[in-house]
Amino acid sequence: MSSTTVAPGTKKAAAKPASMAQALQRALRDAMAEDPTVHVMGEDVGALGGVFRITDGLVKEFGEDRCTDTPLAEAGILGAAVGMAMYGLRPVVEMQFDAFAYPAFEQLASHVAKMRNRTRGALPMPLTIRIPYGGGIGGVEHHSDSSEAYYMATPGLHVVTPATVEDAYGMLREAIASDDPVVFLEPKRLYWSKADWSPDTPAAVAPIGKAVVRRPGRSATLITYGPSLPVCLEAAEAATAEGWDLEVVDLRSLVPFDDETVAASVRRTGRAVVVHESAGFGGPGGEIAARITERCFHHLEAPVLRVAGLDVPYPPPMLERHHLPGVDRVLDAVARLQWED
Amino acid sequence: MTIQEMPGSTAYRPSPPPAWQPRTDPAPLLPDSSPYRVLGTEAAAGADPALLRRLYAELVRGRRYNAQATALTRQGRLAVYPSSTGQEACEVAAAMVLQEQDWLFPSYRDTLAVVARGLDPVQALTLLRGDWHTGYDPRESRIAPLCTPLATQLPHAVGLAHAARLKGDDVVALAMVGDGGTSEGDFHEALNFAAVWQAPVVFLVQNNGFAISVPLAKQTAAPSLAHKAVGYGMPGRLVDGNDAVAMHEVLSEAVERARRGGGPTLVEAITYRMEAHTNADDATRYRGDAEVDAWRDHDPITLLERELTTRGLLDEDGIRQAKEAAETMAADLRERMNADPVLDPMDLFTHVYAERTAQLREQESQLRAELEAEASVESGDGR
Ligand SMILES: Cc1ncc(C[n+]2csc(CCOP(=O)(O)OP(=O)(O)O)c2C)c(N)n1
Ligand SMILES: [Mg+2]
Question: Residue ranges of the Transketolase-like pyrimidine-binding domain (chain A) (predicted)?
Answer without folding.
Answer: 18-193
